[in-house]
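Lab notebook, bench 4. Still working through the backlog of constructs that have no structural model yet. Next entry is a single chain of 179 residues. Request: give me the structure tokens for it.
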Amino acid sequence: MQEERKGYVRGVTADTAVHQFGLELHYLVEGRDSNEQLAILHYTSSPGHEPPPHVHEDEDEVFYVLEGELDAYCGSDTLQVKAGQCLMLPFGKPHAWIIRSPIFRALIVTHPARIDRIFREMQEPYRKIEASGESYEKALQEDAGKAILNIAARHGMRALGPDEIRQQMPGFPVPADRL
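Model written out:
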């Protein structure tokens, strides 16, 4: 017998905050709340804490920007997004973003829900990286970093390699020494 689903209220409070990768996340709606159909995260970040170029195999990602600006790279397109605007990143399209303001806050909505589980499962390997004092880039080469990439892959999200970035996201400004 399936458990009865109920309505609830959840907000952006100190009790709901999760800090990892230089981000502050609040899980407002998780997949377990919506029969895995929808996730909504309140996302706060700053320049230098953006994810690497990646692709979701079956999860659309929508940002509603509350504060700040970013440049989004979706395939060969470059999109400037600012507060009050919505950004749609369709599944199957490689994407990344660069924050262009001191602070960036958005609601991230995904369908179906995968991103919430990715971030939840990444908490333990992230703690190991944070405790090591290594840079995130260096840590990705170590066991904790590989664990993070494996968690993402298990939920249908894959980081792009240098050749894929050059071919599929030609406008993405990656320093030459990283390619």
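Notes after review: The chain has a mean pLDDT of 85. The chain has one domain: 15-167. Flag for follow-up if needed.
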